[in-house]
Amino acid sequence: MPLIDPTRSLLLIIDFQERLLPALQGGSEAVSIATTLLKAAQQLSIPVVMTEQNPDKLCGTTSALSPGPSSLLVPKMTFNSCQADGFQTALGNKDHLIVVGAEAHVCVLQTVLGLCELGKSVFVVSDGIASRTSQNKDAALTRMAKSGAEIVTGEMVIFEWLQTAEHPSFKDIHPLIK
In sequence order, what are the residues at sequence separation of 6 or more whose Cβ sits closer than 8 angstroms to the Cβ of residue 25? Predict the structure, then answer.
């Protein structure tokens, strides 16, 4: 798979919801990575789509992930976001999808498998996903990789978006990863 192309990229933030986060191993670390990616995406004008699983029961997205004016929110009841009303339309023509979220072995996994079936290039941010157990997260990462998703880290994504230290936003984004 090629490097992540910022002009073809979309950041997908799956179900980082207030009521779910306390049960997740590494949840706060994953949200921190997602927040860094969100800030970088906003700086680079990369579109963002957020999903919320059953928001009436699980509350909304954590306040740490404040969506920008160009972010789209897709509420859903399906575990696979690809089956939610409006989700595929929200992706637009972007085909390099950067995925963070929870839970790794449920909504993230099923969405990633759905995106791979749609022929998208999917980049799962290993330090930006979480589950209730490390065994579930590890199994999900293995299955996603075997299904065609690339496993990356948050820093890998940012540096591939920037492409060069001469990028006009490098000086503004670099402090996010220090």
Answer: 130, 131, 132, 133, 134, 137
Half-sphere exposure of 80 (CA within 13 A, CB side): 11
Tell me how far the alpha carbon of residue 100 is from its chain's centroid: 3
Catalytic positions: 15, 76, 107
Name the amino acid, one letter, at 132.
R
CA distance 116 to 99: 12
The alpha carbon torsion through 65, 67, 72, 78 (nearest 10 deg) reads: 20
pLDDT tens track for 119-152: 999 999 999 999 999 999 999 999 999 999 999 9
Two tokens at 139?
């199994």
Structure tokens at 153: 């880290």
Instruction: State pLDDT tens for residues 9-24.
Output: 999 999 999 888 989 9
Is the pLDDT reported for residue 1 higher than 70? Answer: no
For the whole model, what pTM was predicted?
A: 0.96
Taken as a whole, the chain contains a residue count of 178
Residue with the two structure tokens 């979220």 = 101
User: To which residue do tokens 């779910």 refer?
Assistant: 20
